[in-house]
Structure formats: structure tokens, C-alpha cells
């Protein structure tokens, strides 16, 4: 399909409709399918009425599948938009939400709380797991936000975008190495526990938390959408952006802030999820040829939902006794996308003019 | 900019508030229920209170025993259930065990039939459980961290026994409104304490008397053996463990295994008061244990694990005297139902140990868990 | 028509110093103006500070001293937003915007005027269309930037600058790396923008010949940091170019406006013959360090251009014809050989004649 078509608003309208239909379809599939068979009419009526005659089915549908679907959809939207903003800011197609070390900071927060035995702030650490995931979520957020604050405050001093990128990568490495040291000195059970957290999962949240997660993600996704003009101009390069009247330092900070918060939230509630943030923007850019972030952010949000729900469905293919860890599925889907982007780029440069 | 910063603050505050409201509920031990405490002789991880036929069980934090991890009330099916929270009607008919070690208690009480779901472990030995899985009476629910919450819900269990891990992930199960009971038997520091948990499980299955009888027998046998071994004149030295990922985990001086060693008439080389353990490098453990008499080894290896396989793992193992003198006691998790049985048979574990350290005391003992390491001469 | 006396320049530089901090001053005491409706080229040797001056005027780096007044206001007092409506730039920065079409790039030039999300009003869209058309890139409006040739991409960026609708456009080496026809095209486009749209355009360039021919004014930065401004003709007459090429092998031929590379001559070869062939031969021999002139051949080697039914180049020694050639190449080679030949060498140097075999 040639460029003319892929750049037209009519085409975009069609794609938007298709993607929204896909999203609804996948939501439906995620609710209707699972390891326990529930007849379709029962599924529909339970959601319409809000309850079911069969309490077990009601529990499954409303308290397991629904929160999982909401979580997966929100994670997809949040990570997709975070990844898009990172790719634009750093003008690098291989950037993703984790490029600033935010998810490494989150992992470090959880690692400290899970693997450092004893007491921390008067909370006995060994019992955290059974009391509720709240501590883990708080620790993850704390770690992520600490890194975000560090990057924001240093980005003002550094000035250039490249410097921020290097800083983020280095922070990521540092956090990982500290985690490695903690792993070395910890009980096997605790290390095992941390590793399990690191696998990532969409099924850790009960319904109320899932709604909270979705709400926060939607708010910050919308705020990122409002940055469309700044994103457009900053992708021209900092000098052109300044000449077009944009306050580059402030724009950069806002982009890092929103992307960082989205990444932090998703990592806190789901653990580190790989590849979705990297692959979804590329998929969108492949489909609709525009650099205008008004459309890119909107489409990334919708396709983030679609792709994430699709991965979730794959991970829980009914019939399999075990559910695959979500990161395996996202890597499996995401890696080919990234490979094709690289091939495409190489082709463009080697073909020449 | 200020507007946006305030959005940020609101979002974070909302988040932290919801977290905090959950965190604030670490209960402290109270006696508001009243009732008589059913005292346990050894186990410290749980407390049982009885009042008019209704039992209340509190699961405690192994490190800080004033902190309550779980709180359930058990009422009989016939009586009226009170308005107390977390009430389960017993005897239960549908239980889920999310850790293999919990099977031991059910097996000992012949109550495997009450289990409808277990975690998917790599090795399962219990015949009855395997049969029930084959006949679809028991479902496998996935590995730790990745339990299939839907299947759990689909089984509609009356209680879910879990082994607490720090990363949690149980919110989703709790969100289904199911009763979660943590089993911290593995955090007990003495073998009899771990075995005494059978009484706790028995409260769920309605087999209190039977459990008490069982435990009394086990306790008696254990104490008898302990007394027998206490009279020895010479206590051989023993160490435990092996290298994993570049380091050696050494159980502490007051840890679970150190009790076995001592009660079996041996001398555990680690003398600190650590209830846990520490990770050390090869040099440190070698320096301590080079001349130790016995080596207790736990491994998960293909069958026919022998001296050659051990040397292949790390040929420095050959430097230990215990290896040179062929005094290595091995339990191979792939061959022996260790995890599934040992919690309830401390007397047999002790007998195994004594038969190694002081074979003359138990000449006719048939070992259940440990075997001496098979030595083969390498083919050159 | 642009007047010599700039009564109302759009940009005035007064006593400007540029550089990177007080310890690294590149040039000082710069004074110049730019007027609407004129195209000014900034020339100068490498390292004299052309890029620094461009960047300082574009507010991409701070001025060390002095004042730059743009449209009546000191540049340092303008906010980014205000500056964006007065100055647009075209740099050598690589524009690597994924998925951007030409139309989108040009429409980003309207950013100073667009609203919150960057949406284009009807007027904005008209400006974009108009810019695309004027810069002759309208037929490629839906093309991806990555698929354009270098020349087309330059036109697209210039169209963006035009869409930005500023009285001043500053370009940093816009014709670098382009082939000659494209360079001419770009220069013509910039001329057009200057005159038809009454913009002041300043561009730095190394392309002296085109600059001399096509710009209204020149700024020449000499070594040592002096800036000389004026029309190309005035600067030629004032000797600015001599100064510029002072220590090099390049000379500006004022009559033709072309540059001549001077060579070091080792020999002078008297030549009989004029016209086009003489000119060509002179150039060919110059490359070998041999200067052709019309002095009288007295003794030694000399050259004659014969124009009978076909042209031949005859090499004489005294009165004897040594060789004749039809190709310039051959003639040059032979003369070079003869001049270097040891048996003839002392003849040329003036030693007693000897018979050659």
C-alpha cells in the first residue's frame, strides 16, 4: 500500500474503526475464554446483570477475568505511549519505556524489600507477601519514582538529550548490579520470590486495584496526548524545535515525566513487562504513515490495548495446564516487530538513492 | 506546568492511600476471642483457641511471633456459624494445597481425598495424589507465582493453603473471596515443631484426636531415639549443603537441621545462634569442614547419582575428608519423596541420621530418606 | 531595488563579539546589517568563525558582547515564541523524523502560529500549500522525507522556513553536498524568496562563484575576525578577495569574476599562436609548471600552433622542428620530456651546444 494512501485521513478513519472493533473483540474474548469453560450466554448475562446464578462463575468472570482484562489493557496503553514518547524524544527506534532505567529502579525497590531480611521502617519484611501486595507495589513505585526524580533533576543540568539517555542507561545498570548483589546474599526462597515478581503478570490485581490502575493510566495517557505538539516539534531536533518557539528544556522534562510515570505505574502493578512499549509504536508507525503525534498517541493507545490483550489471550490459551509468563509471549510477539524495523531501516540506508 | 504537577501529586496520593489502607492491618495478637488456648508442645508458628466447640487458629509470623499472618475460625457443619470473619466449616471436603510439603500432613491423616487442587511441582511421588490427578479429581494449578487463578476459582475450594513468599501475588486469590491459610511449618526450627502442624491440619479435617495420637507416637519414638543417641561417647562432626551458583548456603547453628544433627548424636560444625543461615564461598566452608566426619547432601539429580556425578559438579568436593572416607549421606529429591513425607516423620529422619552416625545403635534400621553416596571408580 | 544606504535594515549587528566564553573569542567588533528583499551570502575561510556567527545570530549560542537588533528589538530580549515569528533557520542538521511526509514537515513550520495541539487553521493550510508550491516541492508533498533526494530535502526544509513566515531566514551552508545544477536551483529559490516575498535572507556558503553572481550583498569574514560587508562588486574592487586569498594559490580575476588557481612555474615557453587553442594550451602547460607566453623565441625550445586544414602543435628547437602533435596531451608530455631530458638540459641552461643523437 503506497504512502499516499497510508497518509490520508480517510484511511486513518478506517484503521481507527477497525482497531476499536478489534479491541472490543479482544476484550470479549479475554472475558469469555479461560481455563475454565463458561458458556457464552452465561458470560454475557453475568456482565449485563453484574451477578450470576452460579457463584463460582461469577467469581471467575467478575473477580478474575475482568480485573485481568482491565490490567492487561491498561498496561498495553500505558507502555505503548511511554515507549512512543521515548522513541520520539531520543529519536531512536530502539528506545522503549525502560530506557531511562525506571523499571530497573522499580525492580531495585522490590528487590530491597523482598531480599533484605529483617525490619524496614517498622514493617517486618518477611511477612509482607501474605499481608497483601501493597508493600510490593509501594516499593516498586518508590524505586521507580526515585529514579525518575534523579533523571529529571539531572536532565536540567545536562542539557542535551543524549546525556539523559546515557544517564538512564547507566542508572539501569547500577540498579541491576545492586539487585545482583542482593540476590547473592539472600535466602534462596527470597531470591525465588523476587524472580517470580520479575516475571511480570497481569493477574495480580483484584478488581478495585485494577480500576485504580486503569484510571491512573488513562489520565496520564491523556496528558501525554496533550503534549502532541511538543512531541512533533521536538522530533525535528532541539535546534529546530527552539527556533519554532518551543521551550525545549521544559518540553523534554514533561515528556520524561509522563513517560516515566506511566512506566512506573505499570511496573508497580504488573512487574516489569518487556517489549510491548517497544513494539506497539513501531506497529502503529508501520500502519499509519504520519509523524503527527495527535494520531500517533491516539492509535498507540488503542493498539497498545489490542496487542496487550492479544498477548494475554495467547498466554492463557485454554487447554494448556499452565499459563505462560506474560513476558515470554510479549517477547515472542515483539521481537519480530523490532527485527522487521531494523531490516527496514537497513534496507533504506543501503538502497541509497 | 503547575497544573500537571498537581495531577501527578493527586495520582500518587491516591495510590499511596489505597496501599496504606491495606498495610495498616497488620494485626497484633489479641485475646479478644477468649476461649481456652490449646497449647502446642513444640510448634510456634500457630496458636489454637477453643470455645464451645469452635476453634480459632492464628498463624504467626515466624520471625515476630506477635504478628498475625492468618486468622481463621473453624465451626462444625452442624452448629450455627457465628458472625466471625474468616469462618470455615469443618470438616472440609475441598481443599487446595499450593505447596508440596502440605501433602505430607494430609497423607498422614489419610485425607488426601479432601484435596481438589495442588500446585504443579516437578516431582510428585504420592501415589494417591497421582491417581486422583489422573482421574481428574485433583487439578494441577500451576507453579508458584503463576497460579491459574481461574482454575482455583473454578474448583470452588473451602480453603486454600499457601506457602507465603515475599513477592505475594495472593491478592488475586483473596479477591475471589476465598479463605487463604498460610502454612509456615517450614519455618519451624525443630523437627517436632514441624511435625506438630499435623494437629493444625487435623482441625480442618475433623481428625483432632487421631492427629494427637499420631503425634504422640511420633514424639515418643523421637524422644526415645534422642535419648539413645545422647549416651554416645564420641560425637562425629557433620556439615551440610553444596555449592550453588558460586556460593554455599550454610544452615545456621540453631537451624532446623542442626537440631537433627545434635539429637542424632553428632556435632554440627557451625556453632552460631543463627536460626537461618549464611552464604559463604568455597574457601570458608572448606576451611571449616575439610576434616569433618560426615557430609549431609541434598540434591535434585537424575537417578544413579554417584560419587562421579558429584565430582563432575565440582571436583573440589573430592577434597573433603568425608568424601574421601565415603561418609556422604545423600537424599536425591528426584528419587525419594523427601518433601512430601519428611515433615510428619521426624522420628524416621532421626533414625536415618543415627544409623549413619552411630550404626551400632540401630543395626536393623531401614533408611527411608538418606542413602550413603554410591562410589564408583572412574573409568579411565 | 535595494538601496546602498540601508535606511531601515531588519537586522543590525553592532560591535558584536562571538565565541565560546571570554577565553575563546572567535571574532569581535562585528558590524553589519541585513535588509528585507536582499540575499546576503556569508563567505570566509574555514575557521574564521562563519558557523559561530550564524549560530549567534540564530540565538543558538550566546553573544559575548555587543547588540544584535532584529526588527527593532534586541534579540536577547525576545522570548522563544517571539523569535520564532521573526527568524526561521535552515541548518545542516540531519532531519531524521520517522514517518514524516514533506507536507507534515512544512506544516510544522507553522508551529509558532498554531494552537494547542498544533492543529492547522485554514490560513495555516494555505500557507503550507503556498510554500510547497513556491519551493517547487509541491509534487512531492506526500512523499516521505527519507525517500527524497538531497536537493529535494533542502527544498522541503526551505519550504518549512518559508511557511514559518518570518522576515528573516538564516541558512547554514544550504548548498553543501549538492550538485551544481541543484545548487543553482536552490540559490535561485532563495533569490526568489528574498525579492518576491521581501524577506532578508542570510546564508553561509563556500560556493564563491555562485555567491558572487547571485547574492545582493556579501559578508566576508577575514582571518583575524574582521567582517567586511558590501555588494559583491564593491568588495571585489576594494580588494577584499585579495585579502581573503592572500596566502593561497587562488586569485580572483576581477574581469571575469572567476577564480584562477596560480601555479608555480618552473619554465617559460615562448609560443607562437593565439586564440582559443592558445588559451587551452596555456592551461594544460600550467599544470606542468610551464608558462606559455608570447615572448619572441630566441633559442631553445619553443612552441608553435599551426592552423591549416587541421590544427597541429609544433615543437621547435631553435630553428629545427623536433616533433609535431595533434593532441594537446601529447604535446605537453613531449615538451615536459624534452625539458627534463639531461642531454637537452644544459642546452637550456645555456651551456655549449652539443649534437643530439
CATH superfamily of the largest domain in chain C: P-loop containing nucleotide triphosphate hydrolases
Radius of gyration computed on alpha carbons of chain C: 28 Å
With strands numbered from the N-terminus, the spatial order across the biggest sheet of chain A is: 1-2
- Percent helix range of chain A: over 70%
Tell me the total number of β-strands of chain A.
2
Q: What summary fits the major beta sheet of chain A?
A: 2 strands, antiparallel
- Biggest interface, and residues per chain? A-B, 72 and 59 residues
Shape of chain A: globular
Q: In the CATH hierarchy, what is the architecture of the largest domain in chain C at level 2?
A: 3-Layer(aba) Sandwich
Structural class of chain A: mainly alpha
Q: Uncertain runs of chain A with pLDDT below 50, 5 residues or more?
A: 119-124
The strand count of chain C comes to: 17
> Which topology of chain A does CATH recognise?
ABC transporter involved in vitamin B12 uptake, BtuC
Domain count of chain C, please report it: 2
Order of helices and strands of chain C: EEEHEEHEHHHEHEHEEHHEEEHEEEEHH
Low-confidence stretches of chain C: 1-5, 351-357
State the fourth-level CATH superfamily of chain A: ABC transporter involved in vitamin B12 uptake, BtuC
CATH architecture of chain A: Orthogonal Bundle
Quickly name the level 1 CATH class of the largest domain in chain C: Alpha Beta
Straight-line distance between termini of chain C: 71 Å
- Integer-rounded radius of gyration of chain A: 21 Å
Give a concise summary.
By secondary structure, chain A is an all-alpha fold.
Characterise the protein shown here.
The complex is a heterotrimer of chains A (353), B (380) and C (357). Chain A has 353 residues and is an all-alpha fold. Helices cover 76% and strands 1% of the residues of chain A. Chain A is globular. With 380 residues, chain B is an alpha/beta fold. Helices cover 34% and strands 20% of the residues of chain B. Chain B contains 13 helices and 18 strands. In chain B, strand 2 (46-51) and strand 3 form a beta hairpin. The longest helix of chain B has 23 residues, at 208-230. Chain C folds into 2 domains: 11-248, 3-Layer(aba) Sandwich (Rossmann fold), CATH 3.40.50; 267-349, 2-Layer Sandwich (Double Stranded RNA Binding Domain), CATH 3.30.160. The radius of gyration of chain C is 28 Å and the shape is elongated. In chain C, helix 3 runs parallel beside helix 5 and helix 5 (150-163) runs parallel beside helix 6. Helix content of chain C is 32%, strand content 26%. Residues 1-5 and 351-357 of chain C have low confidence and may be disordered. Chain C has helices at 50-57, 80-84, 102-108, 122-134, 150-163, 180-196, 208-214, 232-237, 240-244, 275-287, 328-340, 342-349; strands spanning 11-19, 25-34, 39-44, 65-70, 73-74, 87-90, 168-172, 200-204, 217-221, 227-230, 250-253, 258-261, 267-272, 290-293, 301-307, 311-317, 320-325. The chains are: A mainly alpha (353), B alpha/beta (380), C alpha/beta (357). Chains in contact: A-B, A-C. Chains A and B meet through helix 4, helix 5, strand 2, helix 6 and helix 7 of A and helix 1, helix 4 and helix 5 of B.
Amino acid at each position: 500500500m503506497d504512502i499516499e494512501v497510508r497518509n490520508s485521513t480517510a484511511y486513518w478513519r478506517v484503521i481507527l474503526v477497525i482497531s476499536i472493533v478489534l479491541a472490543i473483540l479482544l476484550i470479549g474474548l479475554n472475558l469469555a475464554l479461560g481455563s475454565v469453560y463458561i458458556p457464552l450466554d452465561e458470560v454475557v448475562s453475568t456482565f449485563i446483570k453484574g451477578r450470576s446464578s452460579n457463584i463460582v462463575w461469577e467469581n471467575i468472570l467478575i473477580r478474575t477475568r475482568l480485573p485481568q482484562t482491565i490490567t492487561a489493557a491498561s498496561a498495553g496503553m500505558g507502555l505503548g505511549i511511554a515507549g512512543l514518547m521515548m522513541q520520539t524524544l531520543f529519536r531512536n527506534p530502539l528506545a522503549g519505556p525502560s530506557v531511562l532505567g525506571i523499571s530497573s529502579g522499580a525492580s531495585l525497590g522490590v528487590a530491597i524489600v523482598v531480599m533484605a531480611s529483617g525490619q524496614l521502617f517498622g514493617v517486618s519484611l518477611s511477612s509482607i507477601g501474605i499481608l497483601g501486595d501493597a508493600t510490593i507495589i509501594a516499593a516498586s513505585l518508590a524505586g521507580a519514582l526515585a529514579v525518575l526524580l534523579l533523571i529529571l533533576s539531572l536532565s536540567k543540568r545536562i542539557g542535551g538529550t543524549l546525556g539523559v539517555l546515557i544517564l538512564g542507561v547507566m542508572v539501569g545498570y547500577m540498579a541491576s548490579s545492586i539487585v545482583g548483589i542482593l540476590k547473592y546474599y539472600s535466602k534462596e526462597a527470597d531470591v525465588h520470590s523476587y524472580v517470580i515478581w520479575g516475571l511480570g503478570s497481569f493477574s495480580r490485581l483484584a478488581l478495585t486495584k485494577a480500576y485504580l490502575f486503569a484510571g491512573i493510566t488513562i489520565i496520564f495517557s491523556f496528558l501525554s496526548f496533550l503534549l502532541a505538539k511538543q512531541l512533533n516539534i521536538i522530533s525535528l531536533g532541539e535546534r529546530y524545535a527552539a527556533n519554532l518557539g518551543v521551550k525545549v528544556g521544559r518540553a523534554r522534562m514533561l515528556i520524561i515525566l509522563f513517560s516515566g510515570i506511566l512506566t512506573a505505574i505499570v511496573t508497580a502493578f504488573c512487574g516489569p513487562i518487556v517489549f510491548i512499549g517497544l513494539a506497539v509504536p513501531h506497529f502503529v508507525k508501520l500502519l499509519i504513515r504520519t509523524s503527527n503525534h495527535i494520531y500517533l498517541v491516539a492509535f498507540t493507545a488503542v493498539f497498545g490495548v489490542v496487542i496487550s490483550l492479544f498477548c494475554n489471550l495467547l498466554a492463557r490459551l485454554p487447554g494448556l495446564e499452565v499459563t505462560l509468563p506474560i513476558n515470554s509471549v510479549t517477547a515472542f510477539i515483539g521481537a519480530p516487530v523490532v527485527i522487521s524495523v531494523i531490516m527496514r531501516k537497513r534496507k533504506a540506508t543501503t538502497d541509497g538513492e | 506546568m503547575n497544573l500537571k504537577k498537581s495531577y501527578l501529586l493527586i495520582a500518587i496520593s491516591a495510590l499511596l492511600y489505597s496501599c496504606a489502607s491495606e498495610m495498616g492491618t497488620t494485626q497484633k495478637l489479641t485475646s479478644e476471642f477468649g476461649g481456652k488456648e490449646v497449647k502446642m508442645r513444640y510448634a510456634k508458628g500457630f496458636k489454637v483457641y477453643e470455645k464451645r466447640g469452635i476453634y480459632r487458629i492464628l498463624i504467626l509470623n515466624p520471625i515476630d511471633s506477635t504478628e498475625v499472618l492468618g486468622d481463621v475460625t473453624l465451626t462444625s457443619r452442624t452448629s450455627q456459624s457465628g458472625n466471625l470473619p474468616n469462618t470455615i466449616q469443618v470438616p472440609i471436603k475441598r481443599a487446595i494445597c499450593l505447596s508440596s510439603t502440605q501433602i505430607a500432613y494430609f497423607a498422614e491423616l489419610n485425607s488426601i481425598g479432601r484435596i481438589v487442587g495442588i500446585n504443579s511441582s516437578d516431582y510428585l511421588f504420592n501415589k494417591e495424589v497421582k491417581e486422583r490427578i489422573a482421574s481428574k479429581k485433583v487439578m494441577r494449578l500451576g507453579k508458584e507465582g503463576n497460579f491459574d487463578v481461574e482454575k482455583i476459582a473454578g474448583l470452588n475450594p473451602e480453603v486454600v493453603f499457601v506457602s507465603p513468599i515475599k513477592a505475594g501475588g495472593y491478592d488475586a486469590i483473596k479477591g475471589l473471596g476465598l479463605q487463604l491459610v498460610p502454612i509456615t511449618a517450614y519455618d519451624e526450627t525443630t523437627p517436632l515443631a514441624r511435625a506438630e502442624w499435623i494437629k493444625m491440619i487435623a482441625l480442618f479435617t475433623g481428625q483432632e484426636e487421631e492427629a494427637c495420637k499420631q503425634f504422640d507416637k511420633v514424639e515418643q519414638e523421637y524422644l526415645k531415639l534422642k535419648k539413645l543417641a545422647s549416651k554416645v561417647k564420641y560425637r562425629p562432626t557433620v556439615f551440610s549443603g553444596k555449592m550453588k551458583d558460586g556460593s554455599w548456603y550454610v544452615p545456621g547453628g540453631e537451624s532446623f537441621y542442626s537440631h537433627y544433627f545434635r539429637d542424632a548424636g553428632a556435632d554440627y560444625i557451625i556453632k552460631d545462634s543463627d536460626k537461618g543461615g549464611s552464604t559463604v564461598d568455597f574457601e570458608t566452608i572448606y576451611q571449616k569442614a575439610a576434616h569433618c566426619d560426615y557430609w549431609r547432601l541434598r540434591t535434585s539429580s537424575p537417578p544413579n547419582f554417584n560419587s562421579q556425578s558429584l565430582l563432575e559438579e565440582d571436583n573440589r568436593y573430592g577434597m573433603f575428608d568425608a568424601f574421601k572416607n565415603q561418609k556422604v549421606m545423600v537424599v536425591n529429591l528426584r528419587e525419594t519423596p523427601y518433601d512430601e513425607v519428611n515433615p510428619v516423620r521426624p522420628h524416621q529422619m532421626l533414625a536415618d541420621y543415627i544409623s549413619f552416625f552411630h550404626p551400632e545403635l540401630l543395626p536393623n534400621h531401614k533408611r527411608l530418606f538418606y542413602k550413603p553416596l554410591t562410589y564408583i571408580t572412574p573409568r579411565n | 531595488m535595494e538601496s546602498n544606504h540601508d535606511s531601515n535594515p531588519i537586522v543590525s549587528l553592532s560591535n558584536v563579539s562571538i565565541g565560546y566564553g571570554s577565553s575563546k573569542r572567535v571574532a569581535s567588533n562585528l558590524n553589519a546589517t541585513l535588509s528585507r528583499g536582499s540575499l546576503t551570502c556569508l563567505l570566509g575561510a574555514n575557521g574564521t568563525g562563519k558557523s559561530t556567527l550564524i549560530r549567534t545570530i540564530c540565538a543558538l549560542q550566546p553573544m559575548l558582547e555587543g547588540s544584535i537588533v532584529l526588527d527593532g528589538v534586541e534579540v536577547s530580549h525576545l522570548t522563544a515564541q517571539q523569535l520564532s515569528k521573526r527568524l526561521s533557520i535552515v541548518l545542516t542538521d540531519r532531519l531524521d523524523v520517522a514517518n514524516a511526509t514533506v507536507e507534515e514537515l512544512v506544516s510544522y513550520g507553522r508551529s509558532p502560529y498554531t494552537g494547542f495541539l498544533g492543529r492547522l487553521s485554514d490560513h495555516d493550510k494555505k500557507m503550507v500549500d503556498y510554500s510547497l508550491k513556491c519551493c517547487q516541492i509541491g509534487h512531492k508533498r506526500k512523499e516521505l522525507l527519507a525517500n527524497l533526494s538531497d536537493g529535494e530535502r533542502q527544498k522541503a526544509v526551505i519550504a518549512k522556513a518559508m511557511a514559518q513566515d518570518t522576515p528573516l531566514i538564516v541558512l547554514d551552508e544550504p548548498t553543501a553536498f549538492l550538485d551544481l545544477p541543484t545548487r543553482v536551483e536552490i540559490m535561485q529559490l532563495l533569490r526568489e524568496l528574498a525579492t518576491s516575498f521581501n524577506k532578508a535572507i542570510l546564508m553561509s556558503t563556500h560556493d564563491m562563484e555562485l555567491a558572487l553572481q547571485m547574492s545582493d550583498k556579501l559578508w566576508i569574514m577575514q582571518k583575524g575576525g574582521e567582517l567586511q560587508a558590501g555588494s559583491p562588486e564593491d568588495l571585489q574592487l576594494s580588494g577584499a578577495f585579495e585579502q581573503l586569498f592572500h596566502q593561497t594559490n587562488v586569485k580572483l580575476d576581477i574581469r571575469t569574476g572567476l577564480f584562477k588557481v596560480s601555479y608555480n612555474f618552473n619554465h617559460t615557453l615562448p609560443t607562437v599562436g593565439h586564440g582559443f587553442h592558445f588559451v587551452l594550451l596555456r592551461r594544460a602547460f600550467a599544470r606542468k609548471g610551464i608558462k606559455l607566453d608570447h615572448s619572441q623565441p630566441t633559442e631553445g625550445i619553443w612552441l608553435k600552433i599551426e592552423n591549416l586544414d587541421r590544427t597541429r602543435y609544433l615543437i621547435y628547437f631553435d630553428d629545427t622542428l623536433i616533433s609535431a602533435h595533434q593532441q594537446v596531451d601529447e604535446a605537453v608530455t613531449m615538451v615536459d620530456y624534452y625539458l627534463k631530458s639531461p642531454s637537452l638540459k644544459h642546452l637550456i641552461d645555456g651551456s655549449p651546444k652539443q649534437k643530439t643523437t
